[in-house]
């Protein structure tokens, strides 16, 4: 898998969306090994995030909630205050088990996802606003 990166590309708008987030407010949580995640991010032309939770960082992978709970801990926030962007069924189950809200990213799917979750095709047209209490909110920028 590490050598097979010819077709790896950024999900449209992902880099710009991540760059718009306040520093220290997000983490990459993946079932991939750290090395595989680093190689795929590089192949997609994306920088390594400061906070990464990878397969080596948890004893139970998705659909267990461990990875998302570890990410929230590392960020210093309550899991209930987190919004997970996910594209895999195991990840949706892990987010739910952890107690986080989730948005399904459908760019990597050929068939429609019927999960009862909000969906985004990709990251274009979305951004973040800050409430008067300081909480971040996902917004459409149409």
Question: What does this protein structure show overall?
Answer:
By secondary structure, this protein is an alpha/beta fold. The protein has 4 helices and 7 strands. The protein has helices spanning 14-20, 34-43, 66-75, 89-98, and strands at residues 28-29, 52-53, 83-86, 101-105, 119-120, 126-130, 136-140. The strands form 3 sheets. Strands 3-4-5 form a 3-stranded parallel beta sheet, covered by helices on one side. Strand 6 and strand 7 (136-140) form a beta hairpin. It is globular, with a radius of gyration of 15 Å. The protein starts with 13 loop residues before the first helix and ends with a strand. The mean pLDDT is 91.
Task: Looking at this protein, list some descriptive labels.
7 strands, 26% helix, three-stranded parallel sheet, 4 helices, alpha/beta, 142 residues, 18% strand
Q: Taking Cα atoms only, what radius of gyration do you get, to the nearest Å? A: 15 Å
- Give a quick account of the main beta sheet: strands, pairing sense, barrel closure: 3 strands, parallel
Sequence stretches where pLDDT stays below 50 over 5 or more residues: none
Distance N to C terminus: 37 Å
Q: Which strand order does the major sheet show?
A: 3-4-5
* Average pLDDT: 91
**Judging from the principal axes of the Cα atoms, what is the shape?**
globular
Structural class assignment: alpha/beta
- The level of helicity is 25-40%
Strand content: 15-25%
Total number of strands: 7
How are helices and strands ordered from N to C? HEHEHEHEEEE
Number of helical segments with 4 or more residues: 4
């Amino acid at each position: 898998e590490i050598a097979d990166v010819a077709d790896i590309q950024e999900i449209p708008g992902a880099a710009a969306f991540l760059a718009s987030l306040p520093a220290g407010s997000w983490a990459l949580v993946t079932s991939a090994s750290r090395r595989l995640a680093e190689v795929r991010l590089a192949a997609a032309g994306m920088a390594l995030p400061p906070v990464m939770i990878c397969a080596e960082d948890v004893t139970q992978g998705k659909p267990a909630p461990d990875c998302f709970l570890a990410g929230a801990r590392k960020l210093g926030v309550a899991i209930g205050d987190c919004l997970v962007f996910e594209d895999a069924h195991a990840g949706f189950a892990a987010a739910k088990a952890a107690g986080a809200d989730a948005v399904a990213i459908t760019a990597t799917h050929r068939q429609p996802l019927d999960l009862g979750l909000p969906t985004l095709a990709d990251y274009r047209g979305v951004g973040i606003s800050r409430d008067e209490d300081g909480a971040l909110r996902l917004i459409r920028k149409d």
